[in-house]
């Protein structure tokens, strides 16, 4: 059994980043054409595009601020003109900021997290889902986080945004399911990536993980590829943790 995404087009927001670049490569390895979104790092996005093309698929980079409706609309037009209408969306981009306590966290950080998690997903849905409805096939995948379940000190703005995102995507799954579009969330733990290698500093974290280790960015990309495929055509409305059991969604 293999994951075959030939004939599909995936748009990955934050596609030039630490997790995004591996998602793009993995989806391309499965045969999907890819549109690599970036906000500021054009050179990294071009490197991801070049790697995807070497795998024999079509690829392009596209710039946008995913918190702005006009930018998302422009992104749709540019992707449509070059590659067509995406039927796989992976919403991975998020604004980075310095974490501190609720009492000290600037209000602007709560606003930025709301815009880059909740509004990001709302804008992507409003802009790209109508074409999926016409096709009667689509995959809408949001990248959440284990932090949404941990609610640890200093995480308040991030957790608030991701929990808001969770609510939007659960509602969206109910609203568009009849059109054979699935909506799911992948929730990484503290993963090893090119930008975040493993180290002794992570030992206390790993001690609390049932598998006693950190996962990799490839573990995230593998689940994204599965959820994007027909193998997962009856899975929707799910928040799936990829954390080695560090967090366990309850029933």
UniProtKB/TrEMBL annotation:
One of its GO terms (molecular function) is oxidoreductase activity. InterPro entries: NAD(P)-bd_dom_sf (IPR036291), SDR_fam (IPR002347). PANTHER family: OXIDOREDUCTASE, SHORT-CHAIN DEHYDROGENASE/REDUCTASE FAMILY (AFU_ORTHOLOGUE AFUA_5G02870) (PTHR43639), SHORT-CHAIN DEHYDROGENASE_REDUCTASE FAMILY PROTEIN (PTHR43639:SF1). Keywords: Oxidoreductase. This is Short-chain dehydrogenase. Belongs to the short-chain dehydrogenases/reductases (SDR) family.
